[in-house]
């Protein structure tokens, strides 16, 4: 009787442990997250129209579209020669051999980082999920309206977003 009770207990323990060993947690869905602030004011970003794109020559383009102008251009940031790794990618003049700059269009406003005498800007990539083609990080840049007396706009935000490629 002791052996029977012991074998029942061992069998029960093995059966209850087996599903835990064979189950794997389902992959959590990645949810698009995108924020945009202009001169500190939060602007709702359109997560459907916004696009992040990596070209064959490894130019990463971040295009953040405003929710109140889904057909507009919004903010576009280019990072030439993106090495597909985490880090901070600061803007540089085109003479450096890298093109890292930003442009912004909303209604009649057109602004460019190269229109500013000082065009600080950077994109910080904090996480890359190459298997699922996602990036996470933040951006900050200064763009200046083209034309005389143009305003400086500080654009910043965060993202967790899919990257398209060709």
From TrEMBL:
Which stretch is the leader sequence? Answer: 1-22
Q: Which UniProt keywords apply?
A: Signal
> What is the protein name stated in its UniProt record?
DUF4402 domain-containing protein
- What is the taxonomic lineage of the source species? Bacteria, Pseudomonadati, Bacteroidota, Cytophagia, Cytophagales
